[in-house]
Design a protein that fits this description.
Length: about 150
């Protein structure tokens, strides 16, 4: 019976000392972390906006080369290569002329190869070979929209 009385007396109630220790540890954590926060003006970022330039910005000439599912090659929607033509001489001649004209006018020539989703990779490689032969290196790719 004495054990039961001792256990009932052993309940000391709410202990405030451990709670104060936890609060001090949390406060110490936030004090240490406050020094590690970088202020916004210290970050080296540039925000988008209107930039003023001293000279006029030149936009590159954009040319679209299309590759259809059947293998036909178009240059700005004008046919330049039949499905069986692997050398694409007509495309090469036009690209060579455009490259020389862009070089003389000191502008960039931007070529976008727009292949249909089901076009053969071989035709795209034929177009890239033709562009490489014409010394054109600024090439991007796009997938034609299916409507």
């Amino acid at each position: 019976m004495k054990q039961v009385e001792q256990q009932a007396d052993a309940n000391p109630g709410f202990q405030i000392a451990p709670m104060i220790d936890v609060v001090f540890v949390i406060m110490l954590f936030f004090m240490v972390m406050a020094g590690a926060v970088k202020v916004e003006h210290e970050l080296k970022t540039t925000l988008p906006g209107n930039a003023e330039t001293s000279k006029e910005t030149e936009m590159p000439d954009e040319v679209t080369i299309g590759v259809s599912e059947s293998g036909e090659i178009t240059l700005n929607e004008d046919p330049v290569g039949a499905p069986g033509d692997k050398l694409l001489e007509n495309l090469y001649n036009q690209m060579k002329q455009m490259g020389q004209a862009a070089e003389q006018s000191k502008t960039k020539l931007l070529i976008t190869v727009q292949a249909e989703e089901t076009a053969r990779y071989e035709r795209v490689i034929n177009v890239l070979d033709c562009l490489a032969k014409a010394n054109i290196s600024n090439v991007t790719f796009a997938v034609a929209d299916t409507e």
